[in-house]
Design brief:
Length: about 160
C-alpha cells in the first residue's frame, strides 16, 4: 500500500476513534452531569432522544475504527499471515486491540445502549422520582453508569495498546 494511502487511512482511523471515544465520554461526563439540573420529565425525554440519535453514529464510528485498524495492521502494516499475529509482538498487540475493540463495541451496542434505553423509556421510574421518591431512579442510573463504564475501560485498554504499537 502506498505511504500516502496508508496515511489517509490512518487519519480516518484516528478521526473515527476521536468521534467514538470522545462521543461516548462527552455524553457520559459532559452532557449527563449538566442535564441533571433539568426537571425529571425533561431529562428523560432529552436523554432518550440523545441516546437514540447518537447510537447509530457512535456505532458507525466504532465499526469504522475496527475496519480501518484491520486494514492498517494487515494491508498497510506488517501482518501478512497468521504467523505474524501469533509470533510477533506487533501481531499480539494488534490482535489484543482488535478483540478489545470488538468487545467494547458489542458491549456498547448490546448492553450499554439497551440498558440506557430501558431506563430512559421507563416513564413510571421518572414520574416516581418527580413525585419525591428518587431512590429507584438513582439505582437504575447507577446500574447504567456501571455498565457504561465497561466501555470506558475498553477505551483505556485500546489507547494503551495503541501506545504499545
Amino acid at each position: 500500500m502506498p505511504w500516502e494511502v496508508r496515511q489517509i487511512i490512518l487519519g480516518i482511523h484516528i478521526f473515527l476513534a476521536i468521534n467514538w471515544i470522545g462521543g461516548v465520554m462527552f455524553i457520559g461526563w459532559g452532557v449527563f452531569p449538566s442535564v441533571r439540573n433539568m426537571a425529571f420529565a425533561q431529562q428523560r425525554k432529552f436523554f432518550l432522544a440523545l441516546i437514540q440519535w447518537s447510537h447509530r453514529f457512535l456505532t458507525a464510528a466504532g465499526t469504522g475504527v475496527i475496519l480501518t485498524g484491520i486494514v492498517l495492521g494487515t494491508i498497510g502494516g506488517p501482518i501478512k499471515n497468521l504467523d505474524d499475529i501469533w509470533h510477533t509482538s506487533y501481531g499480539n498487540i494488534w490482535l489484543t486491540a482488535l478483540l478489545i475493540a470488538l468487545i467494547t463495541l458489542l458491549w456498547g451496542v448490546f448492553i450499554g445502549y439497551r440498558q440506557s434505553i430501558k431506563v430512559f423509556s421507563d416513564v413510571a421510574l421518572w414520574e416516581t422520582a418527580d413525585s419525591g421518591d428518587k431512590k429507584p431512579l438513582s439505582n437504575a442510573l447507577r446500574i447504567t453508569i456501571l455498565l457504561e463504564s465497561v466501555e470506558v475501560s475498553g477505551f483505556i485498554a485500546l489507547i494503551i495498546c495503541m501506545v504499545l504499537l
